[in-house]
Amino acid sequence: MTTIYDVARRSGVSPATVSRVLSGRRNVDPELSEKVRAAVAELGYRPNGVARNLRRASTNLWAVVISDIENPFFTSLVRGLEDVAQTEGYHVVLCNSDEDPAKEAAYASAVLTEQMAGVVISPTSTAEGVQQLAEAKTPMVLIDRRVEGVEADTVLVDNEHGAAEGVRHLIDGGYRRIACITGPRRVSTAMDRLAGYRSALRAGGIKYEKDLVRYADFREAGGFAAMESLLDLPEPPEALFVANNLMTVGALECLAKKGLRAPDDIAVVGFDDIPWADLVVPSLTTVAQPTYELGRTAGLLLKDRIASPGRPPSTVTLRTELHIRATSAPRKP
Amino acid sequence: MTTIYDVARRSGVSPATVSRVLSGRRNVDPELSEKVRAAVAELGYRPNGVARNLRRASTNLWAVVISDIENPFFTSLVRGLEDVAQTEGYHVVLCNSDEDPAKEAAYASAVLTEQMAGVVISPTSTAEGVQQLAEAKTPMVLIDRRVEGVEADTVLVDNEHGAAEGVRHLIDGGYRRIACITGPRRVSTAMDRLAGYRSALRAGGIKYEKDLVRYADFREAGGFAAMESLLDLPEPPEALFVANNLMTVGALECLAKKGLRAPDDIAVVGFDDIPWADLVVPSLTTVAQPTYELGRTAGLLLKDRIASPGRPPSTVTLRTELHIRATSAPRKP
DNA sequence: CTGTTAGCGCATTCAC
DNA sequence: GTGAATGCGCTAACAG
Q1: Contact yes or no for B114 and A78 at CB 8 A
Q2: Is A91 on the interface with B (CB under 8 A)?
Q3: Which of A113, A193, A298, B18 has the smallest number of Cβ neighbours within 10 A?
Q4: Please, is B126 exposed, middle or buried when counting C-beta atoms within 10 Å of its C-beta (0-12, 13-18, 19+)?
Q5: Residue A2: which region, alpha, beta or left (left: phi > 0; alpha: psi -120 to 50)?
Q6: CA distance B75 to chain A (A)
Q7: Are residues B246 and B271 in contact, defined by beta-carbon separation less than 8 angstroms?
């Protein structure tokens, strides 16, 4: 392996000067600078990033800890983050936590031992890793979910407002008996979206009925089961609000299996888009989140946090957007 | 920061012994070993991964270079890879090349300077980065596409066979005038799938017509445009085979926009699944690739390559699976 | 089985 | 504006 010493010898300068040239310092004689560049080219020299990292006591890696890259919500978010990372000279390490606090903690640990420059994380329910990273003062941006007792930059969407908007849309369509499938009680997004559902009911003068709410696991199978259980009610709902994309898919699959159709048998609004929601038939009404923007914003916040670790944490809340499609068509008289 | 020397002092042994204990070497007195562990716990010591990497002249990072994580084909593949990486003690760095040889080359460069342990890569058309990595003898696994003149472990699917099976299914359904939308001429998968299309036609005694083939860019917009152009033919096709998932979506959107329906107006078979293909209406017949398995297999090959760099490269070809759904229903008399 | 020693490749003092 | 010297934290030789 050719080192900075080889380049120095070849160009007749000291290693220090080579280092200065390569890291783009101004105060180097242009003539020497040119010699160094020539030597670098001739030798095919490539700086050793690991050595640089050791010396600088930090790497150019960002970790992104999400529950599952196969969920399109996170896929697009990661893409947004990676685009920022690339322009800022960082690389993104992908970490699937699978909602498992132990995995989250393991990744947090890796972030620390590998001296990664920062972390973007969607916390699991107990947020073990988040606590660990907060204590170590690692530059960190929380996405999608809040964590009690942790002060950190955070990027959220307006869950309550978005959910309320989706449910209001159903109410406006003439539906009264509206069910809700939400996520686990310990997850802030689940509770916020449920709160939006309740506030929309209240605003519409509809009584909240506990029986019409299901707490599932944000996964496809959970949505399927919850839908089944709702259909088993003595008086099944006329409409349904589902608090995330995967559970919506599960619910739709359940309906399809039972030979029921949206919106004729039951109207549906889902939180969070799915890819090609237009192709699903009937096309699916969703409360869309700006997923790419979420990732991008997180990246920008992380960059700022690394540049000025001292400044107070900020929270950015992005807006959702109601995409009205076919599954929420107004009720027929 | 507490170092290995602090732990050594605290536990009354040498740094070398601490190192031995922490890297799980057998030949250490259990008693000393215990002392070391105690000291580690007391001091909250955490090894410095970067220093370890410098010393070992290698990191525990794998790069995965794909064109776009937002394509579900790659999403699932990356997940498969990450699962292997995790069990083998590696982390995965996500690199979106966007089919841009320059980006691919930039990432290849990063792999080298950051001393990553290995790479899994889906080559762009010119495969600049691949050449670079091959020269540097970086452990590398090619996925999805072959590259002429590069000897490396490779994971493919049987594109020609899968495409032929999909097209044969259309022929069996009574369709004769079958169009094909494939990818760029320089990409091996595009040509292999086209070859499968041709061989199925031949086997079915159908004359190959150049006019019924379109070369697009493997993206949604490309599929849309190609579909439009096919519909503009004096005598439009009765059926269509599309060589990847995104173009299939584009083609379906084009049909929807024109008020045409599959399979009544035109039957459709797409190569590569899309998420929730069942929910698309009419549900989409696909030649499904084992995407997760592709990633997993690549991970296993990479692990082996790192363990024994000398052994001759191997190519693994996985089977596709025809998922017959509604868009390819037999032709009505 | 354990300790001493050296050096991985670089960036940064500090002199000049 | 430049060079010599130092050490980041660890692991692998080697000697004992």
Answers
A1: no
A2: yes
A3: A113
A4: middle
A5: beta
A6: 6
A7: no
Tokens describing residue A212: 């019409």
Cβ B16 to strand D below 7 Å: yes
Q: If we measure between CA atoms, which residue out of A77, A181, A72, A66 comes closest to residue A124? A: A66
Phi first, then psi, for residue B185 (nearest 5°) are: -60, -30
CA distance B295 to B144: 10
**What is the per-residue pLDDT for A283?**
87
Cα separation, B103 vs B127, whole angstroms: 11
Q: Which residue numbers in chain B have pLDDT < 50? A: none
Q: Which residues of chain A have pLDDT under 70?
A: 26, 281
**Nucleotides in chain D with any atom closer than 7 Å to protein CB:** 1-5, 7-13
Report how far residue A16's alpha carbon sits from residue A10's, in angstroms, rounded to the nearest whole number: 14
Residue A155 is inside which H or E element, if any?
Answer: strand A153-157
A326 touches chain B (CB under 8 A): no
The pLDDT of residue B28: 87
Smallest Cα–C1' distance to nucleotide C3: which residue has it?
A: B14
Q: Do B54 and A49 touch (CB under 8 A)?
A: no
- Is B47 within 8 Å of A82 when comparing Cβ atoms? no
Distance of CA B254 to the CA centre of its chain: 27
Phi, psi of B283 (to 5 degrees): -60, 145
Q: A60 to chain B: nearest residue by CA?
A: B114
Query: In 3-state terms, what secondary structure has residue A107?
Result: helix
C-alpha–C-alpha distance, residues A322 and A200, integer Å: 14
Residues A251 and A257: beta-carbon distance below 8 Å: no
Question: Beta-strand (E) ranges in chain B?
Answer: 61-66, 91-96, 118-121, 140-143, 153-157, 178-182, 213-215, 239-242, 267-271, 285-288, 315-318, 321-323
Tell if the CB–CB gap between A280 and B278 is shorter than 8 Å: no
A75 vs B75: CB contact, 8 Å cut-off? yes
Can you give A180-229 as a three-state secondary structure string?
EEECCCCCHHHHHHHHHHHHHHHHCCCCCCHHHEEECCCCHHHHHHHHHH
Task: Using an 8 Å CB-CB cutoff, list chain A residues near B245.
Answer: none
Element of type H or E holding A270: strand A267-271
Q: Are A64 and A117 in contact (CB under 8 A)?
A: no
CA–CA dist A320, A92 (Å, integer): 26
pLDDT of residue B279: 79
B:226-255 residues touching chain A, CB 8 A cutoff: 249, 252-253
Are B125 and B146 contacting, i.e. CB atoms less than 8 angstroms apart? no
Tell me: cis bond preceding B275? Omega within 30 of 0 counts: no
Residue type, B138: T
Task: Say how far apart CA B175 and CA B263 lie, in whole Å.
Answer: 11
B315 Cα to chain A: minimum distance (Å): 26
**CB of A166 closer than 8 Å to CB of A195:** no
- pLDDT of A26 reads 67
pTM value is 0.95
Angle, vertex CA A51, rays to CA A46 and CA A56, nearest 5 = 120
The per-residue pLDDT for B276 is 84
* Nearest partner of B300 among B120, B97, B38, judged by Cα: B120
Q: Distance of CA B124 to CAs B121, B142, B147, B194, Å? A: 9, 11, 9, 19
What are the residue ranges of helices labelled H in chain A?
4-11, 15-22, 30-43, 49-56, 72-88, 101-113, 128-135, 159-172, 188-203, 220-231, 245-257, 291-307
pLDDT per position as a tens digit, B291-314 = 999 999 999 999 999 999 999 999
C-alpha B148/C-alpha A31 separation (Å) is: 43
Q: How far is CA A78 from CA A43, A65, A83, A309, B5, in A?
A: 37, 10, 9, 23, 39
